[in-house]
Fold this sequence. Notes:
The chain is α/β, with parallel strands linked by helices. Helices cover 33% and strands 22% of the residues.
Amino acid sequence: MRLLHTSDWHLGRAFHRVNMLGAQAEFIGHLVTTVREREVEAVVVSGDVYDRAVPPLAAVELFDDALHRLAGLGVPTVMISGNHDSARRLGVGAGLIDRAGIHLRTEPSACGTPVVLADTHGDVAFYGLPYLEPALVKDEFGVEKAGHEAVLAAAMERVRADLAARAPGTRSVVLAHAFVTGGEASDSERDITVGGVASVPAGVFDGVDYVALGHLHGSQTITDRVRYSGSPLPYSFSEADHRKSMWLIDLDAHGAVTAERVDCPVPRPLARIRGPLEDLLADPDLARHQESWVEATLTDPVRPAEPMARLTERFPHTLSLVFDPDRAPDDPDVSYARRLAGRDDQQIAEDFVAHVRGAGPDEDERGVLRDAFDAVRADAAVREVAR
Length: 387
């Protein structure tokens, strides 16, 4: 069976101040063309269809158009909700839409109930694991402590139990929206850290033929059978080096995987340039970026006059301006920035305790801080779902 694996459409999202709806519509057209021309037999979409729980009307209209075009091809589509989606909203009408070959899987309780499709070699069971917010689903899965690994492991137990009861030779595909260990993050994914841990080991998904992951925006191979498609469009300058693509996956009669990347149309290349303003304006090597979306980091020790106006004369698509002056190593601003660089909320809070008290928190106090951060994230997730 030939599958097309994609995820993280983020319909309705802008890139800095640029409306991306036209580029998103172009991607949907490219997706439909790829399905038709490459004789795809099933499409899998691994979450974050929308960028937020209550998407703008134009994004809903584009999603509706995508569903109609995919259904018109007669090629089944299996789709899960991600951490940016409202699972309830995305899943409205799922029972009716099923009849058109569009299978929306947004309910955690249905993790062990697959969409079963058949080819000339037999059945392929598709299990949809929507984004599982640990604080909200721990009771559903009977886990004592809310954590990503615990709830995903429990969901996969249901998958393996159902698969074991099926006919020998049944192949299996899991769709999941999670941060799997070994994956490389970018600046445009929403933090899903719980208990100080954001990632889960790839071994959680052992026992199935292919795992179609969503959440991380770079196309990545965790193992031959566990892959991220990445987002089809860039949503932050940290993705400047990404090759935006989808995975074309062939499952043979025995479940062996062959994978090919299919490039997505990119509306404009990204460029990150850095240096003193006058150098950026004069450097001939930067001419290749004059039609790119540009993030410029200025290292002038004193902020230049009208930097954005001057930059856009040469780089008309400059979207982001960052000031990072070259300073002496003992400058207090430099040392503070270095202390914070690469540190998460928990580490920053522990450093603050040590600064104020003269000694860092003990293990019990670290637990209190960790629980406080988890409670804030859980409350935010509940409020997002309720919107």
